[in-house]
Design goal:
By secondary structure, this protein is of the alpha+beta class. It has helices spanning 2-37, 42-116, 122-125, and strands at residues 149-151, 154-161, 166-170, 173-176, 182-184, 189-197, 201-209, 212-220, 229-230, 235-239, 252-259, 262-264. A hairpin with a 2-residue loop joins β7 (201-209) and β8 (212-220).
Amino acid sequence: MRHQKNIFRDKSFMVMAGVSVLALVGIGAGMILQNNTKEPDSGYISDLNGNNSSDNSEDIRGNNDNNSGNSNQNIAANSGAKKSNDDEKTSEESATTANNEENTSDSSSLTANEDSSNDGGSSEAGVSVSNLHFSSESTLIWPVETNDVIMDFSPDSTIYFATLDKYKTNDSICIRSDVGTPVYAASAGIVSDIGYNEEIGNSVSLDLGDNFTLQYGQIKDIQVEEGDVVAEGDLLCYVANPTKYYSVEGPNLYLKLYDGETAVDPLDYLDFE
């Protein structure tokens, strides 16, 4: 019986001891858990965050100010460079415009000089297309040295053609001249045509203005070209050997004057004085 009480007492002690151990373990675990989960001092966190935030904000604001300053400087520098380039470009464009205007002026002067200085000495005589005028009151100088007319103008009645040995009308005149005699412009005009036909051989026609045209035939060594402006007295060509239609008449200058489409007598305009 006594032995049973001791066993019970020993068991009670062991239980109590076990409970005590469990209690100590629980207390220790609780203290460890409390230490692990306890937050740091909130004031330090606030100060740290505040100091870091302020410093960072100032750094960021400073960097932004620096960036803004650099940006403004870059913009100002770029604007200045762009303005300088624009000014330089404007200056170059102005210079180009001035050069173009000068070239245009030079071209106009050249054109004017060319218009007033065609072959035949027209520039010296002041002859131009705009001042060519001829009328029934105008006169012609003799185109060759002589005024020996061997065939008269006769459009309404017949005259004798020795080479053809026949009578027929004549709408021109023939002036006796030696082969090689110089032939001059009887009036200022524009060379409107250079041609050839079997009857009169080589020919040159001058537009005298106001629908008057003067044609030269039986000529050679023509000194002008179509489009040339010639002055009165300019050398045009030379008297050639006569064609087969004028072989009996001998060397002569064929001269025919038109008023529009109508042939008129050159003797009415030639100056005999």
